Amino acid sequence: MHYAELENEDRTLLLQIARASIVHGLERGGPLEDSALDETMCLTPALTEPRATFVTLQQSGALRGCIGSLEVKFPLAADVARNAFNAAFVDPRFMPLAAQELRAVRVEITVLSPHTQLHVGSEAQLLAELDPGVDGLVLECRGRRATFLPQVWQQLPDAEQFVSQLKLKARIPADYWSDDIKAHRYGAESFAES
Hints:
- By secondary structure, the chain is of the alpha+beta class.
- The protein is built from six helices and eight strands.
- β5 and β6 form a beta hairpin.
- The two termini are 30 Å apart.
């Protein structure tokens, strides 16, 4: 399945929804509800289409939270609202966002395309298949799974390093390879508050 790129108005509204969901979390302890989205936002058909997203929060250029979904479960606007709340308050790597931090936080949204399995028999084949700077990657092995969004190429531009760090994130030894490892690639559309 192929998705058209979002219109600028849809991107702007999604960023507003993400921030509103974080504010809602500060005030009421939960994400902006689907019913509130339907009642208060003028959602276009693109925003009601089921999609998988990640929401990343940055503070002074440093990661402050990042949570997302790899599987499509909710309409786009609802997925963004949930993931914005979770990035702010549930990411286990960080303390929950405090009200005084809100103004300094920059919101970035990544909307994923469907995954495609890469049929590779070796790590060398996987490295040859990857399109650095473009591909997001999911690695799975024996019940462990991790992903790097395409933006991670900015910090890890070398494909070997990208894959070895992703293996470590999935709690797989960096030098390990077997037929048990499954790899999926996806594209993504990312946009952020200015």
